[in-house]
Amino acid sequence: MYENLETANNPDNLKRVVVDPVSRVEGHGKVTLLLDENNxxxxxxxxxxxxxxxxxxxxxxxxxxxxxLVQRLCGICPVSHHLAAAKAIDQLVGVDPENxxxxxxxxxxxxxxGQILQSHSLHFFHLASPDLLFGFESDISKRxxxxxxxxxxxxxxxxxxxxxxxxxxxxxxxxxxIHGTGAIAGGMNKPLTKAERDYLLEDVDQMIAWxxxxxxxxxxxLQSNRPYYDEFATVPTSYLGLTKExxxxxxxxxxxxxxxxxxxxxxxxxxxxxxNDYIHEEVRSWTYMKFPYLTALGVDKGSYRVGPLARMxxxxxxxxxxxxxxRLIFKLHSDxxxxxxxxxxxxxxxxxVLHCAESIKNLLHDPDIxxxxxxxxxxxxxxxxxxxxxxxxxxxxHYQVDENxxxxxxxxxxxxxxxxxxxxxxxxxxxxxxxxxxxxxEPLLNxxxxxxxxxxxxxxxxxxxxxxxxxxLELVDAQGEVVDKLIKHNDGHVERAG
Amino acid sequence: xxxxxxxFAYGNLSRGDDALAPLLAETIEQDFSGDLQLEVLTDFxxxxxxxxxxxxxxxxxxxxxxxxxxxxxxxxxxxxxxDKSYTTHAMSPASVLxxxxxxxxxxLPPCFLLTIQGxxxxxxxxxxxxxxxxxxxxxxxxxxxxxRPELNFWREQCTGAACFA
Lengths: 498, 165
Prior knowledge:
A: Cytochrome-c3 Hydrogenase, chain B, globular, B: alpha/beta
């Protein structure tokens, strides 16, 4: 609907407004708006301005380093990369997910629930809640967690403690809150002790209660001004994620399911090792982040969303009672089979926090969790694929190794990348509906950031490709005149322009 | 039951001399292994949640590396202060103490900062020769204090003024 705002016809004659950096998100990005003489928006883009190159520099490393190496992609969701890589290298030692020892499987799930709990809590309470509690165009001095702590002290403190609890789950399982170790090829490297289990059990009921309260809070906020919140930055899309075989919500291991904007199944219980048959990525000249799409729908109509909103939209049930109850209420929010409201990402995110807290309690009471039977090995293979549901959505890690166990090829499709098209469409929608024709002010521009923030993008994770980056090199003389220009296109072709 | 004395080291092991505090923390952890009265925590940077780590302690020691320090090491008593770092994900210890005062209803325990001089914080670099020497001297200085966790004694040992950063 707003595709025409991706590229303006005559960009050189337009005013340029830049939101740089986009704040309260992980990583570095910026938004550029091009306006005509009447302040009408002619172009709106979310740019990712950092570049990492992980896929390239992990080549040549031994495979067993991968779960530790790839954690360095991110300080917020390192566990997600750790576990996706671990699932991939399980296959390199001949171990499929169903053959992992039960204790190792459950410890990984515990670690993963802790990760999602802390990441979602950080995002909602620290980064997003100021917008929702004080208003999108509130005074800038209020748009931070300190203001929340001052004016909504109970909510703020609960958020800080929820995140801390998730970090403690990670620390107990992997030794550190950030960049610990835990998963190894074919299992885990240490059991959970009884003391560690009991320590985590002390507060888990409180975490469940606070999570349930947070779900009620966000539901109340989003239902307080329905047409506005429902339509803000909203783009009807397809959705993709892992589910259990029965269609239940699943974060650690399952089949790929996708639904279109009307709720029709596009894929169901597809083996994620065949992801290459279903998903391709497009590169565009103006951003470091790729645009994945479902091949069956083609590049123009195949974009999809992942993450909490996608998971709530594609799953049929949740296997913990309070979260399932919350999901049913969530689904009633829309008259349609799918909830497309972009701000409903927050609601879905908090339902997942509740599910994590309930699941952590269940796992801590599971007798297997204290077992020290943690590792198995099988026949060596030369290719491994690990896919999990990270906090921000479906995360693909794909590696090939040679006979010396050295990584020869790596492909990562990071969650935020899958939301790239939708994030840009949300930015264009907000620019067209709320900014166009107005005198732009800082509070008004925060609307653009609110739209991006709803996706909880992890821009550090999302820019890892190398070798396909479009580049433009300009030679400018002392008077500022461009005297020569070289353009390297996505396919590597270089041309001299102008 | 929380340990009475918390040692909180922050820095990045992969960034040259920024590893000073975590490395000293490893030594302390080994030296006090099994001692339930002292807990060692490490992290890359200070954030809001770390205010909760202070709760229930009787004495807290933060440890950090600094390229701005002119002394090999400095021990200062910390005061709470809301500085500009509160909007970042690399808060100052003083700002973390301010968070504690804002959200925790119990009095703030006495908190100190041990700053160790570093030279270079480049990614992938090992500890510099000067930093290795500084680490040894800082270790020799701090170990007796950890074995004698008394507020007045620590105050007497302070080498820097009350610290807000």
